[in-house]
Amino acid sequence: MDDKDFIFSLYSNDLIKITSKKDMQFSLVNKDSTLPPNYITREEYLCFKKTGISSATITVINHDNTYTIPSLGVKGLLSIEKYNVDALGNITKVGKEKRRGFK
User: Fold this and answer.
1) Quick check: 69 and 50 in contact, CB under 8 A?
2) How many other C-beta atoms are found inside a 10 Å radius of the C-beta of residue 66?
3) What is the pLDDT of residue 84?
4) Does an H or E element contain 97, and which?
5) Which residues of the chain have pLDDT under 50?
6) What are phi and psi of 4, to 5 degrees?
7) Contact indicator for 57, 50 with CB cutoff of 8 Å
8) What would the pLDDT profile of 73-88 be if each residue is shown by its tens digit?
């Protein structure tokens, strides 16, 4: 990838907004919970956890750690946007970031 095509880096616990072509089905993290077993949406603010490089997937979890998608395919997503959260809980969309190298 050329540096001119780079938008942002993702790290564990970064806030992202995902918009999908199809319904995303979240499952409960705690199977003993009294919440409904599934949650379905096409757009959501989520915490990024990790990537599955070999299968082009990401693991995401909602803000209160109740619902997750352990293997969400990125190919079927319309957009992934990164957001910053300040000390007061205000969120702002991250624009283009400078690419950082590995150490």
Assistant:
1) no
2) 14
3) 95
4) none
5) none
6) -70, -20
7) no
8) 999 899 999 999 999 9
What DSSP designation does 83 have? E
Start-end of H helices in the chain: none
pLDDT of res. 1: 67
Q: Please enumerate, as own/partner, the contacts of 61-68 that have beta carbons within 8 Å and a separation of 24 or more.
A: 61/29, 62/26, 65/29, 66/28, 66/29, 66/30, 66/33, 66/35, 67/26, 67/27, 67/28, 67/29, 67/35, 67/39, 68/26, 68/27, 68/29
What's the chain's length in residues?
103
Q: How many CA atoms lie within 13 A of 45 on its CB side?
A: 11
Residue 78 burial by Cβ neighbours in a 10 Å radius (0-12, 13-18, 19+): exposed
